[in-house]
Specification:
about 210 residues, mainly alpha, Arc Repressor Mutant, subunit A, Tetracycline Repressor, domain 2, about 75% helix, about 0% strand, elongated
Length: about 210
């Protein structure tokens, strides 16, 4: 792929400027208290330009997560032969999510403080859960819409979330990657054990 042209680079710089100033304002004044007009003024763009990049304030909060979400879904759906869904999820989280930077930490705080953002977050997480359920179903040799892959996918995402929180609870906000991954590995081992138990138990056939 060739280098980005001048127009594309300018658009990326504008997008990043909007995100940067918006997160700074959210951190200083709060998400609810910050208006779109204030973000546009701080980023030195018009409200129309801002909305061309982000249809809502929520989209700004989650701007950095969209590429990661798309990449994880892609890796789950196109993983190497012999690599389990849990292995894929564990590796991705270890590489990209286990030790959050300042932006991720702020995003987590904003989500915890705002129900609207929590709803938005759950909607985005549903896409990952669908991709994970499909991958687990393939591992189990079962339909992707079956209850066991869905249960397992929901449990896996919950376990990963708990592992991330536990790493910080035990080791503090400055937990090293090694410390955090050690907790993540416990979650992955738990999930693999659960899936092994599921595999050993025949699925009940659906009845009409």
């Amino acid at each position: 792929m060739g280098e980005l042209g001048l127009r594309e680079r300018k658009k990326l710089r504008t997008r990043e400027a909007i995100v940067t100033v918006a997160l700074d304002l959210f951190a200083e004044h709060g998400y609810q208290q910050t208006t779109v007009a204030e973000i546009a003024e701080a980023a030195e763009v018009s409200k129309g330009t801002l909305f061309a990049y982000f249809p809502s304030k929520e989209e700004i909060v989650f701007a950095d997560t969209s590429p990661l979400r798309e990449q994880l879904c892609h890796e789950l759906r196109h993983r190497s032969k012999g690599l389990s869904a849990v292995d894929t999820l564990r590796a991705f989280v270890a590489d990209h999510m286990i030790t959050p930077g300042p932006r991720e930490a702020l995003r987590e705080r904003l989500i915890a403080e705002n129900e609207q953002l929590r709803v938005h977050y759950r909607a985005r997480l549903a896409e990952v859960e669908d991709a994970l359920a499909e991958a687990i179903a393939a591992d189990l040799g079962e339909p992707a819409d079956g209850p066991r892959p869905r249960f397992a996918a929901a449990a896996a995402l919950s376990a990963i979330s708990i592992a991330k929180a536990q790493a910080r609870s035990v080791h503090g906000a400055t937990a090293s990657r090694t410390q955090a991954v050690a907790v993540l590995d416990q979650a992955a081992a738990f999930l693999e054990g659960g899936l092994a138990a599921i595999s050993a138990t025949p699925a009940r056939r659906r009845t009409a």
